[in-house]
Design brief:
The protein is an all-alpha fold. Helices cover about 75% and strands about 0% of the residues. α4 runs antiparallel to α5 (about 85-115).
């Protein structure tokens, strides 16, 4: 009997999206990835300690940044935080965002080694 095959997860960073946003400029790709890597953790930390309106605003900013590097899961998670209602829902959405950021930053570290 053959072992069940597990689905292959989508890449944490959509390289085609990154190339479109940077017009294929590898130097700019590196710069954008480094900026996102620094910014994502800072914004997340501020979200965990912010008021709901501030959290939504920071999540919106992060969603845009994630779009520029092709971090699709971070975009989706940031959108969920931006639209979260009550405190428990917001906390759960922030935790999912933290996991997506961790995954994206690990992928970015690998990509930066390629430059």
């Amino acid at each position: 009997m053959l072992a069940e095959q597990q689905p292959v997860p989508a890449a944490a960073i959509d390289r085609a999206q990154l190339a479109r946003m940077t017009l294929g400029n590898r130097s700019l790709e590196r710069e954008v990835l480094e900026l996102f890597d620094r910014q994502a953790g800072l914004l997340l930390a501020r979200m965990y300690h912010g008021e709901p309106a501030v959290i939504a605003s920071l999540a919106h900013t992060l969603k845009g940044s994630a779009s520029s590097v092709g971090a699709i899961r971070v975009m989706a998670a940031a959108a969920a935080v931006e639209n979260a209602g009550e405190s428990a829902e917001r906390k759960a959405a922030l935790d999912r965002l933290a996991a997506a950021i961790e995954e994206a930053c690990a992928a970015i570290a690998g990509l930066l080694r390629e430059f």
